[in-house]
Design a protein that fits this description.
heterotrimer, A alpha/beta (294), B mainly alpha (127), C mainly alpha (245), A: 294 residues, alpha/beta, Rossmann fold, Alpha-Beta Plaits, 2 domains, 6-stranded mixed sheet, 4-stranded antiparallel sheet, 13 strands, 31% strand, B: 127 residues, mainly alpha, two-stranded antiparallel sheet, 5 helices, WH-like_DNA-bd_sf (chain B), DNA-binding (chain B)
Chain lengths: 294, 127, 245
């Protein structure tokens, strides 16, 4: 079953498209990574899904309802990021109580356990927390709602490495215990690729690819060999990137739609390409890099 | 949590880890193996990836399904694993050895000599 | 999937209770405003004590004009405040849509107005006690001669509360219009000043429309209808308002 269905979804700001004709379906009870560079339209998409903002054109359904002004979508979804501002008047302890009042599936035991583990104090106020602590609190709040659609937008901003690992571990364990649809947006795929079932790669407001994580890991292969051999091999292949690796040697990243043994037999060395690198190659603005423009 | 290594796809690592459990006798024929959720927790991975590893073993007749109960070790799982490893893993490793030897311009006799030495060393270790 | 099915009334009440807790500054500012009004009023009496009888009578109607004016101002400003980005976006941390947000805001402002009316009336009595102790007998006697002094406190509370909620509704509308576009921050004051200069002055006409009404039932009708109308208009810009665009 699909939790999210969007058709030709577009959102423009002052005429500039942030999401540009996106058609996508997200299946339920899976963890999907929304990956893309800054400005790819990830956050805009996510905010439309929870009904914060309204699409300019196109169609979109979340739980079979148009999310903007849908109480049903609001009651069953949560959007977590590092810009969340909680009211200053309430303490962290009171905020958790408010969460419990509003979200029917709220798990207070879970919230309190993490709250203590990350050394929060119930009398603290959200605006007094450091950036990393804020995002950690937001994460606890988001997970404790146990929302059918749980969205994390760049969730680990400001967290130190230890907390970040804890976060991903908690997320997975909580998901295993309470499967639900979870979206995580980030530009650092390598940080949490092990958690993902599916990946939606976006660029310039559009979908570049949408596939299972395990397939993305085998999407491309890097071939290294003498110029002539590699050059000849590439002519009918989809090349994502290539460079001179040493004098007379070429390294090329190509879409893996052939048997690797074939290439190896010709004397090329094949190495896997990490999923995060595939994403970088697929969304590179030019075939070169910063070195080619400076 | 079990640490992952190398560039091998994770679902293959899961499958190999389970195979090793069978080879070592931890899992006997008709034992129930870990569920995709247990594996996901154990390896800190998405359960879909764990399921892919389990399904791979199922397709190779190393595991069989009992509807609603989970996956179980087949009677000839160990034999299948051994055969597979010989045919795939070992062959591939040997091919790599031969390729490397060619790069180093070793002749066949020299390579065979090295292999015999390696076998000999193993004999000594076991003694 | 297990969905939470929540009727809008339930969410409105939850939002309302949340707002009573989270917006407690609204009530501290009420106390501050009314204390300031008390201070200015009693001070004003003392300095103008020797003045003409008419001035004093005008200054000291049943609750003290300044207290009421400050309470109106308080309602107006607070209503604008809760339409600002920070307040609007806080609502969306929890379950809401724009209807429930609007309805809970209205409930909150109505509650605040009743409290404003109540405290303004009480502060009016307090002011009289202060004046009794601080001014000469003649001034005080002049005050209690005023027939409005003995108006039923309940009517006083209701009247002030209705005025405050009307000011709230007005502020809420202006706040929501300003949220539509910053330019309205300039346009609206210009319109208000223009209204004052206009001949015949529209502002005075509006004033007469409400304050000049002697029939309590008609007054009730006028204020309630105006308030409802203003609140209804506010929902037009709010309904399409995006959160954290």
């Amino acid at each position: 079953m699909n939790v999210i269905e969007a058709t030709d979804l577009t959102k423009t700001y002052k005429g500039v498209p942030a999401v540009d004709g996106l058609t996508v379906t997200i299946k339920s009870d899976a963890i999907t990574g929304i990956i893309g560079r800054n400005g790819a339209g990830k956050t805009t998409l996510l905010k439309m899904l929870v009904g914060f903002i309204k699409e300019t054109s196109g169609e979109m359904n979340v739980f079979s309802e148009h999310p903007f002004n849908s109480l049903h979508v609001s009651a069953n979804s949560i959007f977590i990021d590092d810009h969340m501002l909680f009211p200053d008047a309430l303490t962290l302890g009171e905020l958790l109580k408010e969460g419990e009042r509003f979200y029917t599936n709220w798990d207070m035991t879970f919230a309190k356990t993490l709250f203590d583990y990350f050394s929060f104090h119930p009398d603290q106020h959200h605006n007094q927390l450091s950036k990393g602590k804020k995002t950690t609190f937001n994460m606890i709040f988001g997970l404790a709602t146990r929302s059918e659609l749980t969205i994390f937008d760049e969730p680990t901003t400001g967290m130190d490495a230890a907390v970040r690992n804890d976060f991903y571990r908690v997320l997975l364990k909580d998901y295993l215990a309470h499967p639900r649809t979870i979206l995580i947006s980030s530009h650092h795929l390598d940080e949490f690729d092990h958690l993902l079932e599916d990946v939606l790669l976006m660029d310039e407001g559009q979908q570049v690819l949408h596939m299972p994580m395990d397939d993305l890991k085998e999407y491309a292969v890097s071939l290294t060999g003498p110029d002539a051999v590699v050059g000849q091999w590439l002519y009918d292949k989809t090349v994502l990137a290539k460079k001179q690796s040493a004098p007379g040697m070429m390294q090329a990243v190509v879409k893996q739609d052939f048997a690797i043994e074939q290439a190896e037999r010709l004397g090329m060395k094949a190495t896997p390409v990490a999923a995060s690198d595939v994403c970088i190659y697929l969304t590179a603005k030019t075939k070169g890099g910063i070195d080619d423009v400076l | 949590m079990v640490e992952m290594e190398g560039s091998k796809p994770i679902y293959i690592q899961i499958a190999e880890w389970l195979e090793n459990q069978m080879l070592s006798g931890y899992f006997q024929p008709h034992d129930k193996v870990h569920s995709q959720y247990t594996l996901a927790d154990l390896f800190n991975i998405n359960p879909a990836t764990a399921a892919k590893g389990l399904n791979m073993l199922h397709d190779e007749h190393i595991l069989y399904n009992k509807r609603g109960l989970g996956k179980f070790v087949t009677g000839d799982a160990v034999a299948i694993i051994r055969k597979k490893r010989k045919n795939d893993t070992l062959k591939r490793m040997l091919r790599d050895v031969v390729t490397e030897a060619t790069h180093l311009q070793m002749d066949d006799a020299e390579l065979m000599e090295m292999l015999r030495d390696a076998i000999h060393e193993r004999g000594e270790d076991q003694a | 999937m297990s969905f939470n099915n929540v009727p809008i009334t339930q969410i409105v009440l939850k939002q309302y209770r949340y707002k009573l807790r989270a917006y407690y500054q609204v009530f501290t500012s009420l106390v501050v405003m009314q204390l300031l009004a008390l201070l200015f009023s009693s001070g004003g009496i003392m300095t103008s004590g020797g003045g003409s009888y008419g001035v004093n009578a005008h200054l000291n109607t049943y609750t003290g004009d300044l207290i009421i004016i400050f309470t109106f101002l308080w309602g107006f400003i607070n209503a604008i405040t809760i339409t600002t980005k920070a307040y609007r976006e806080d609502d969306f941390l929890f379950v809401t849509n724009r209807q429930s947000q609007h309805l809970s805001n209205m409930l909150f402002l109505a509650t605040a107005s009743v409290i404003g009316g109540l405290t303004a009336t009480l502060a009016g009595y307090l002011l009289r006690v202060i004046i009794y102790w601080t001014s000469d007998e003649a001034t005080f006697a002049g005050m209690i001669d005023d027939p409005t002094t003995f108006i039923d406190p309940l009517i006083s509370i209701v009247t002030v509360a209705l005025y405050v909620v009307m000011f709230c509704a007005f502020g809420y509308l202006i706040g929501n219009i300003i949220q539509l576009h910053r330019l309205f921050m300039v346009i609206i004051p210009v319109l208000v000043v223009g209204g004052l200069l206009f001949d015949p002055p529209i502002t005075l006409k509006i004033y007469a429309f409400f304050v000049g009404e002697t029939n309590i039932l008609l007054f009730l009708l006028k204020t309630v209808v105006t308030t409802v109308f203003l609140f209804a208009c506010s929902f037009v810009p709010l309904r399409q308002k995006e959160v954290r665009p």
